[in-house]
Amino acid sequence: MTHEMTFSSELTIDLDALAANYRNLRDHVAPAQCGAVVKANAYGLGARRAVPALYQAGCRTFFVAQLCEAIELHDVLGDDCTLVILNGLDPGAEDLCADHGFVPALNAPGALQRWREAARRRGQRLPAALQFDTGMSRLGVDGATARRVACDPGFATEVELRLVMTHLASADEPGAPSNAAQLSTFDALTALFPGVPRSIANSFGSALPAAFHNDVVRAGIALYGVPLPPGAAVIQPVVGLRARILQTRQIAAGTGVGYGLTYTAPDTRRLATLAIGYADGWPRALSNRGAAWHDGKRLPIVGRVSMDSIMVDITALDEGALGEGDLVELIGPGQSLDQVAADAGTIPYEILTSLGRRHARFYKEHGMATACIAGEVR
Ligand SMILES: *Cc1c(COP(=O)(O)O)cnc(C)c1O
Questions:
Q1: What is the pLDDT of residue 2?
Q2: Separation of 217 CA from ligand 1 center, angstroms?
Q3: What integer pLDDT is reported at residue 358 of this predicted model?
Q4: 230-254, pLDDT tens digit by residue?
Q5: How remote is the CA of residue 256 from the centroid of ligand 1, in Å?
Q6: Which portions of the chain are predicted below pLDDT 50?
Q7: What residues form DSSP beta bridges with 218?
Q8: How far is the C-alpha of 305 from the C-alpha of 231, rounded, in Å?
Q9: Sign, Cα dihedral of 53, 56, 58, 64
Q10: CA 192-149-163 angle, 5° bins
Q11: Is the shortest distance between the CB of 219 and ligand 1 below 6 Å?
């Protein structure tokens, strides 16, 4: 028995599809450049595998959320890469950040101050992005701070501004009036920093008109296989998920299923118990909702999702079609990541980043699948 076979579920990650998605996004937003957001371990899929694949596809600008994520990726990044830390500059982290050559997205007056002090202390001009709050009230400096920095001649001697950026609150709603309002505020603020590359769009921003593409697009979720609206870059699925059958059974009308007996069979049913549960990132919100798939047939989840297992109704399949040890599709050709998220009442971002480390992972690259057990890819 190979090590991968000791796992009860399999996550497949198609790095060829990831690279194709990158190239399609890049071509769609050209002449703007396309950067890759690889925060949260590349949305749970393995940043140490995703980054080299994206680099080979031509990506040179990467974004993480936290300093620890940047450090984790330092040795897989080429010297010709820029790594931006979106959450900014943690107090006390200035020297670590500067030693590695990371680019913090300065997003508050205190962070600006601390980065400038570090530059003076080290006698070194330090790279940074500058993030503006243009209406989302999450991260970023306001207009007054931006103007103060732009008018301060000392700033440019201490900080080498690589990027000016902001983030859209409603990029996925093309008609939202806030998009145009944020763009016009951004245009006014970036005019204070002539010649510095500008960045406003995330994945869904790439599907907005070209005015939103600016100089650098920060693509995340679309790289990982979540489709964009018609007319935008064509996106292929990247992730597949399957789980093993632990046992099958037939139950009579009136029989209850799972914790709390929240499902009762209306007539004779055949069930399969699958080895996946909320500890694997399969959301408990899918209790009595959502499904597994096999052979083009939908197998509804019945009863509550447990920590390590779910029950699905396999009555639609021929008797004997599935048995102990067989793998059943949870994300794949029958059921998209988007569909799973919709059934669970959440967004695909949350499903992906929750998938966790309990699945055997198979990375497909250059047409070949390689097994990689959980833990090998951090
Ligand atoms: C996460 C993030 C992105 C990427 O967003 P997607 O919707 O995944 O493309 C871009 N910019 C910032 C500031 C982010 O936090």
A1: 82
A2: 10
A3: 93
A4: 999 999 999 999 999 999 999 999 9
A5: 43
A6: 378
A7: 35
A8: 38
A9: positive
A10: 60
A11: yes
pTM listed for this prediction: 0.96
Instruction: Name beta bridge partners: 79.
Output: none
Query: Bridge-partner residues for 129, per DSSP?
Result: 105, 163
CA–CA separation, 315 and 317 (whole Å): 5
**168-217 pLDDT, tens per residue?**
999 999 999 999 999 999 999 999 999 999 999 999 999 999 999 999 99
Catalytic residue among 22, 39, 43, 224: 39
Look at strands 327-331 and 239-251 and give their pairing.
antiparallel
At 105 the three-state DSSP class reads: strand
Q: Which atom of ligand 1 is nearest to the CA of 222?
A: 9
The full length of the chain comes to 378
Catalytic residue check, 364: no
Structural domains in the chain plus CATH codes: 16-223 (3.20.20.10), 239-346 (2.40.37.10)
Q: Is 39 a catalytic residue?
A: yes
- Cα(234)–Cα(181) distance, integer angstroms: 28
CA distance 11 to 357: 10
Handedness of CA 99, 105, 108, 113 (dihedral sign): positive
For 251-289, how does the pLDDT look when each residue is reduced to its tens digit (9 = 90+)?
Answer: 999 999 999 999 999 999 999 999 999 999 999 999 999
Residue 140 tokens read as 């970023």
